[in-house]
What we know:
374 residues, globular, 22% helix, alpha+beta, five-stranded antiparallel sheet
Amino acid sequence: MSxxxxxxxxxxxxxxxxxxxxxxxxxxGCPPGLGLTEADVQHWLDRRKxxxxxxxxxxxxxxxxxxxxxxxxxxxxxxxVTTGTPISMMIENVDQRSKDYGDIASQFRPGHADYTYFAKxxxxxxxxxxxASARETASRVAAGAVARKLxxxxxxxxAALVQVGPHRIEPARWNxxxxxxxxxxxxxxxxxxxxxxxxxAVRKAGSSVGAVVEVVAExxxxxxxxxxxxxxxxxxxxxxxxxxAVKGVEIGxxxxxxxxxxxxxxxxxxxxxxxxxFLSNHAGGILGGxxxxxxxxxRMALKPTSSIxxxxxxxxxxxxxxxxxxxxxxxxxxxxxxxxxxxxMMACVLAxxxxxxxxxxxxxxxxxxxxxxx
Length: 374
């Protein structure tokens, strides 16, 4: 299997399967001198890990990370810093229950990657979906922690769950401060009990439902990204779309821009003290594939979890029709743990865009992670 790496200068390779002994990532291209410890990475992994509430899979994984390479003690500061060499990180799997998948070892779950993996490779890891499992996203979150170190505190990345099934929050009621105060990463406290009641019913019915996550990066300076085939929005869309279960991505107004007039869609500008002031942000902070200095905004739609208790018609490896029921521990809505993953992918894309911008233009005087360096 190829294509397990993304990025250009800041390159991330993920490895491992849902029910293998471990999974992890290798981050290549990170500059030297950035302070990085396992605790720095663990903070972000703890936000993603399963088992946190009754609405997500009850698989109990501590997601304890080990940094195996790419860091060393700095004699001048006494802290641990990146060396510029590949950073390898590993997360052990400790709570696999592979027997839950014994009944579907030779069956293809409808809506899952079981069939396409088998059609391509002639073999598949049926235990939890292998590489097609949401478990793979732990590696992305670890890589995102390194990217955040490179970007520094000047670039703030936040994500929120904005829709569960048919229940969507109204932007006018958003409060980002509440996203980490409830199990849904929901910026509208009034929607929390609605989602709770809805997901309880979905879970008890043995079914699942989709969701939409919005991710925003503030503090991104103008100039990142490149025309024509290195567009920042194209890189971001590809990164978000690569997340397992994501079936749609939009930037800024996205598909909504199709219903706007030119007057409505144009983000008018006025002269500000430190540069242009934009009166709206339908472009999502990106024009011509290059950042404008406004917040970079993207949304991703996640499909319902394919592993459900409701019988569905499918096929087995002998092309025989079968009724498929998936046992085990599954998220009734994978979107509930997706915000930290969306943040990580945004961070990786921006870290890569920054390094590419700096390499092509010198980057001016702006270096996001300068305060993190020795």
